[in-house]
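Supplementary Methods, section 5.1.

A reviewer requested that the exact input to the structure prediction be made available. We therefore reproduce it here, unchanged from the version used in the analyses.
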Amino acid sequence: EGNHVNKMQRIQEEVDVIGIVEEMLVRLEDGCYSLHRVQMKINNLIKAKERVMELIKEEKEDKEERNK
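The structure derived from this sequence is encoded token-by-token as follows.
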């Protein structure tokens, strides 16, 4: 059960990163941020998305294991 809570917390942290990056893209469009800064954040976004997908997959596998 603790593992489940930890995974859900990690998923939420990654979702928070996605929200931050989306906000930065809006600011880039408004001319507030440099392209280089946003490119670095986009790389972070891609990594966060990959981690979220992996965590969701693990959570699904764990749930199936618990339901056996």
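The chain has a mean pLDDT of 84. These observations are discussed further in the main text.
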